[in-house]
Amino acid sequence: MSKVYVVDDDAVRRAQICRLLAGENIHPEPFDSIDELLQFMPSQGFILAHDRDQGIFELIQRLERETWLPVIAYSDEPETARIVRAMQSGVASYVTYPLKTAEFRREYDMLKSTFATRHVKQQRSIAARRMLEALSNREREILACMLDHGTSKAIGRHLGISPRTVEAHRASLMARLEVRTAAQAIRIAVEGDAFGLTEERSTHQDNPTLGIACDDRYEELVQQAVG
Question: I want to staple 145 with a disulfide (CB 3.0 to 4.6 A). Which of 133, 155, 200, 210 is the partner?
Fold first, then answer.
């Protein structure tokens, strides 16, 4: 039985939703605030959160820093612009309160089958970002150059430093990342977004096709890294 973490500061509404989920053989875990949820920090399941003020956007931002779980937002008679903004920020789905059992079941089943792969990918990304944070600025710069420039001589020419200096930084960063090959290091860089795909996506939020393009570029870079 999958868990759904229900985040709502209204106790009556929260209880009603929990009863509905339990009736669908979905295990609910109630929380009255985002802070309370993130103190618990679940590692798997789904989040069903009431969309109020800036809370849903704060939740998405904080989840991106710590972990990743699909978020379903809900509110009374939400405006289309609000739904669009929430989905652009990273909300997986949006439903209207009072929740209709059939509608929620459909969304839940869809996310359960679709987001398993994305969850694994996102967990790898979080782990990779933490590893990249241990690198120095120069090591991150050289790692980012390894895909486009390849050799130490080419990287040194691009950065205006000697190939020997590049080699020293490469050896250091690979030791920090605990990898043996350049391809393994580049894969961590791709998964940790050292090439700026997340920034590219957020800069062009009005383009509905960009997320797909960025995902395709992500997979292309991964294939290059392991090829």
Answer: 155
How big is the chain by its Cα radius of gyration, in Å?
21
**In this structure, which topology does domain 3-126 adopt according to CATH?**
Rossmann fold (3.40.50)
Strands in 32-155 per DSSP E: 46-50, 71-76, 93-97
Q: Do domains 3-126 and 134-226 have the same CATH topology?
A: no
Rounded to 5 degrees, φ, ψ at 55 are -60, -45
Task: State yes or no: pLDDT of 132 exceeds 80.
Answer: yes
Say how many CA atoms lie within 13 Å of 8 toward its Cβ: 24
Q: Could you tell me the pTM of the whole model?
A: 0.55
Quote the tokens at residue 37.
């949820």
CATH domain 134-226 topology: Arc Repressor Mutant, subunit A (1.10.10)
